[in-house]
């Protein structure tokens, strides 16, 4: 898992990506106005709006998080929804604790 570990560490190196993960930890609190059920994830447009950056910038950050396995995405109609991948996050934290 060294490559995966490095990929996750690189993904976490940017403050906006860490902030997005924090927001997704409590979607009910951070995205209360979403019309779709939060059980399917948070709509990319909601994340764009909260981040205050362009859609393309936020999309690139979400793609980095997804490549690292920290979030999963699901397309419903024309929308993309994102959720934290808790299994990957927990495995990463355990590995980090073992290695450090």
UniProtKB/TrEMBL annotation:
Coiled-coil features, chain-numbered ranges: none
Superkingdom, taxonomy of origin: Bacteria
Keywords recorded for this protein, A-Z: DNA-binding, Transcription, Transcription regulation
UniProt-listed SUPFAM superfamilies: Winged helix' DNA-binding domain
GO molecular function, one term: DNA-binding transcription factor activity
Pfam name, any one: HTH_5
TM region positions: none
UniProt domain HTH arsR-type: residue ranges: 1-100
InterPro entries found in the cross-reference section: ArsR-like_HTH (IPR011991), HTH_ArsR_DNA-bd_dom (IPR001845), HTH_MetalResp_TranReg (IPR051081), WH-like_DNA-bd_sf (IPR036388), WH_DNA-bd_sf (IPR036390)
NCBIfam families: HTH_metalloreg
The protein's name: ArsR family transcriptional regulator
């Amino acid at each position: 898992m060294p490559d995966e570990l490095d990929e996750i560490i690189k993904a976490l190196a940017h403050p906006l990506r860490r902030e997005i993960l924090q927001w997704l930890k409590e979607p009910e609190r951070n995205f209360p106005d979403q019309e779709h059920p939060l059980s399917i994830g948070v709509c990319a447009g909601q994340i764009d709006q909260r981040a205050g950056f362009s859609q393309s910038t936020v999309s690139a950050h979400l793609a980095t998080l997804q490549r690292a396995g920290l979030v999963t995405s699901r397309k419903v109609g024309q929308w993309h929804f994102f959720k934290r991948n808790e299994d990957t996050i927990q495995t990463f934290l355990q590995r980090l604790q073992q290695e450090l």
